Amino acid sequence: RSEINPNSKYLKLFDLRLSDAGIYTCEYDSHTVSISLHVFELTISLDGHFLPNEVPELTLMQNSSHHQPNLIITLFNSKNNRVIPKLLQNKTRQKYIMKLKQLEAADSGTWMCHVHSDSPLINQNISFDVKVLGFQNPDFERKYATVDSTVILSWHLNFQKIKWKEGFTGQLNRKQQKSAIAHELLDFNITAGGKKHETKKSSHFQFEIPGSKPESTIEVKLPKVHFNHSGQYQCQLAYNRRYVQSKIELVVMKVSANPVGPLPRGAKMTLICQVSSPLPSNAHLCWERVNGTQMDSKKSKQHEVKVEVNVSAAGLWNCHLIEDNERKISLNYAVEEAPVWISYVVIGASIGGSVLVFGLACLCITSSISWQRRRQRAKRMARARQYLLENKTCQCQQ
């Protein structure tokens, strides 16, 4: 593991180890030159390959021919920000064990360990790589959609960005609201060379896997969203029996009217706007009439999933889902006025219905009275027959 340059008499050591520390002496004629070699070895747990929220441990070893100096160790992350580790062991000054904070995917990159000592004077920088396999998405995000719209749910992996040279697997699951059962939509695996293979698993749930997308993206497309497509979509990675996941909650909004159809003159209609799951405290639903006044609007209360507004005139109404004063999605409902003849038909039907009800009521009363009279007549005749039988008399005309 060494070679000597015959011209300059340089000694070069390869694959340096802790045991190589010591005093190296060069003798030439009557000249003697000695050099003390101080060796450091820095290792990181799990060979520097982590998942988010895992905690790395650094081990710094030193060896020299003299006493081991007390080292001052300073760490810098991939953004060149100082990191203060927790020192777990420093009894012999030969071995330092440091515990870092929980990692995030953004922590991936080249870190620096600066080693300093005053006696002997040491200023040494040791670089090491930290790779955190995960998502560029947040751990949890919420996505809003309207009924009949097209929605694409995407998870962006960072394995290409951090040059991850290991194979891993993953799957995409869907869980409806208020249900503990998760249904697998697809699974995938990434080879050590970075090639992705996807397999569609669900047959009862209608979705598409877009073909033209980056290798580092997991994506599903819902071409026509239904109200029951709402729920949590969870993408999970698995590496060496360790897991990390990212969730997207899909909230679907729809609008309807009661009763359905054109609005007759003088009648009222209720417009209903609702979402598939409770909204966070910073979000609400709001009906408002286009070109209307502040009176022509209504907001939902906190955590309500539905808001209703009563309408008595034709016009265009919009329902907005607002989060942090920002409109996320909107749906409109056009209230149309019924033609005049329909209004007359409705009025006539109402009057006719009232007359019919009155007539039926009169008929029922008349029939009831007639039935009562017949019943009373029958009772009188029955009593007369009973009286004749009990007295057993017969009257004859002379």
UniProtKB/TrEMBL annotation:
InterPro entries named in the record? Ig-like_dom, Ig-like_dom_sf, Ig-like_fold, Tcell_CD4_Cterm
Q: Which Pfam families match?
A: Tcell_CD4_C
Which residues span the membrane? 341-371
- Annotated Ig-like domain ranges read 266-330
Keywords assigned: Membrane, Transmembrane, Transmembrane helix
Look up the domain of life of the source: Eukaryota
UniProt xrefs under PANTHER family: T-CELL SURFACE GLYCOPROTEIN CD4
What's the name of the protein? T-cell surface glycoprotein CD4
Give the originating organism. Eudyptula minor
**Gene it is expressed from:** Cd4
